[in-house]
Amino acid sequence: MIKKISSVIALFLVSFAAASDISWKTFDVKFGPSFGSWNDESTSMFGGSLSLVKPLNSYVGVGVMLEVATDVSGCDDCLNYDFNELSEGLVVNLNAPIGRGVSLIANFMFLVNFQDGTADEIRFNDPTPIEAYDADGNRIEAYEYARDRDNGGYVSKTSEDYYFESFMFRSNLGVSWRTKSEFFGLEFYPLDFAIVRGGDSRMTFSLNAVFRVF
User: Fold this and answer.
1) Could you read off the pLDDT of 138-172 as tens digits, one per residue?
2) CA distances from 97 to 49, 100, 175, 214 (A)
3) How many other CB atoms are found less than 10 A from the CB of residue 203?
4) pLDDT 10s digits, 99-135
């Protein structure tokens, strides 16, 4: 049974290769850095990805990808999320050649996203009215927050383990350049949008180096 399935897959790839002059053994290895931000503007992401894509012809490819990232909140008076990400799954690659090795390129990714880290919640006491005056000596409304110098200047700070996993749909649009032999290239994605369960979303900028095998 396994041999029959393998034969069908091989025949499928060979048929595409025959129609597109691409060998059934040809694969594109893509890797590079990525920078992004979740819909909470205070949470930024830095990571890198690795993809293995099988070009079926000059316009369509399919493959798998893996991305790892670190996310850090920059919020000083709200819930801080500091976590690591792992995303893995399938990718469909589309190419639209423009000329001289340049193409418009798009990817549709169907991934599982794992997030593991901590969530820090910072709380202040209710503000206390105090006496305050402006430069002309007029009384103005002012308040003071109680602070705890031994706790980073905040009234209270609690830290809890944070873990989240979800299906992630991700798509991007960019520009690619390939050498004449197509064995080396670069891909830049200024538009990269991901969404996970619950409506959280991430915008990303990414750059990939591409090496063709066989």
Assistant:
1) 877 776 655 554 545 555 567 789 899 999 999 99
2) 24, 9, 10, 21
3) 14
4) 889 999 999 999 999 999 998 876 655 566 777 777 7
- Determine contact, residues 50/89, Cβ cutoff 8 Å: no
Q: What is the pTM of this model?
A: 0.74
